[in-house]
């Protein structure tokens, strides 16, 4: 028989038992609970984000289609968007030649991804729109009359404002010079200031304006004062948001100029489209 005293307090314990034995308000337990909560919450958020992504993509596409319908003046909220969108003919346009190409599927071509693909995009040295790179190909949308002639052209445009890149569409009449409408579907300008680009009272100012004059000089401008070219080429800058307005001026002129749609519009005017 051993004469050593038996001390039960000294009995070796596992990590879990020792942890459970700690008081509830110990630093270890508090940290454990906080970290566990963070982990579980982040797993739930990630799972929800991943599972909702396909729905978000569908909604994003639908939102873009609604914007195309709106800028073309044919949006009817009571009608199915997908069905109404069937009226539009998407075409992938090669900006440099100003001609349509069938190298890509127009229904699925991703303009934004293309701008990041070095094989089909170029870095801009002269970059008034503040976009860094430009895809050589963009998806444009044609709205045709019943006799198959072009009614309107819907051209994507984008460029930097004050805080963000504004993405939108400009709708042109079939003559390729008269503006039917302009609308942005994505930006992060300040509500009440730069975000007034979404105000219907400002958007309507674009309707009926002309891009270029009789000599085919690009004249469209978004400025505070009416320039010498005249009011038919001018849209008032947003008050209290001159910097966003300068961004819109620059991006519209970039996309309507030689780096953008000018070759396409020249082909259109020459009857080659
Ligand atoms: C918090 C904050 C947000 C602003 N957001 C915008 C904006 O989105 N777009 C813009 O052009 N100016 C914005 N401004 C104002 C600009 O700093 C600048 O004052 C304005 O563009 C000048 O326009 P004005 O010459 O018409 O007054 C913001 C200013 C502040 C303080």
TrEMBL record:
Give the membrane topology.
Single-pass membrane protein
Q: Which domain of life is it from?
A: Bacteria
Q: Which cofactor does it need?
A: FMN
Where do the FMN-binding domain residues begin and end? 161-259
The answer to whether the entry has keyword Transmembrane is yes
The EC number of this protein is: 7.2.1.1
Q: What reaction does this catalyse?
A: a ubiquinone + n Na(+)(in) + NADH + H(+) = a ubiquinol + n Na(+)(out) + NAD(+)
Q: What class of enzyme is it?
A: translocase
Where does it localize? Answer: Cell membrane
Residues bearing FMN phosphoryl threonine?
242
Membrane spanning stretches? 31-52
List the keywords (alphabetical): Cell inner membrane, Cell membrane, Flavoprotein, FMN, Ion transport, Membrane, NAD, Phosphoprotein, Sodium, Sodium transport, Translocase, Transmembrane, Transmembrane helix, Transport, Ubiquinone
HAMAP family membership: NqrC
What's this protein's function?
NQR complex catalyzes the reduction of ubiquinone-1 to ubiquinol by two successive reactions, coupled with the transport of Na(+) ions from the cytoplasm to the periplasm. NqrA to NqrE are probably involved in the second step, the conversion of ubisemiquinone to ubiquinol.
Q: How does it assemble?
A: Composed of six subunits; NqrA, NqrB, NqrC, NqrD, NqrE and NqrF.
Q: Which family does it belong to?
A: Belongs to the NqrC family.
Q: What is this protein called?
A: Na(+)-translocating NADH-quinone reductase subunit C
Q: Which organism is it from?
A: Amylibacter marinus
